Task: structure prediction
Amino acid sequence: MADVGANSENPDALDYLRDIALPFAQAHGLKLTITQRVRRGKPLTLREYLMEDNRSITIPARLSSGAPGNRKCTVEFKVQVIARYIRKTYGVKQYTIGLGISMNEIGRVRSGPSIVGSATQELYYPLINLRKSLNDCVAIILAAGLPVPPKSSCYFCPYHRPAYWVELKEDRPDLFEKAVEIEKRLIEKRAGFSDAHNDAVYLHPALIPLELATGAQTNFFDELENCESGYCMV
Result:
């Protein structure tokens, strides 16, 4: 697992990883490795990077046009992190990587190899090959005597649906306030660009600040909640 950081990931997902997934893996002889992006020898979380004094937005915050911006977070904090771990651990530049995409999301399947840095990844979709749906996966998890895991995603991801932000504000106001802080920081960075691209960016699809948008009901861009890469929400 490429860990984006305890101050970035859904805390329920990290609790499940610690309390359920890791003990289960150890009990069944499975190697479950957690790796993280490192800079100058120290772990770097996605939230820390977003809050830094740099030009990078990294996450697909929505532009005033409504379109999401470039999503670099998956590549920089997941894809490249895992590729670097494989290269350092096994010394290989060609390998097969399995992505947990089910039949419900077959449209996310990509053909051909994927190039990451100097490595060539052959993409493999075990759930697609087994014709397993999301419900099939839930049944398998329950049959193993495990609780169904929560969704793994950053709590401030712009792909979240409007209902999510309302629930976050009600159930986890601490995380909601942190998301508001991130959004304000991204707007500050956007406004400081020396070029003409200085319009505001938003985390909510209503294209208004989170503090004002949590009462808004809209389904715009709901279909974008899942990352297409397969590295998120696996």
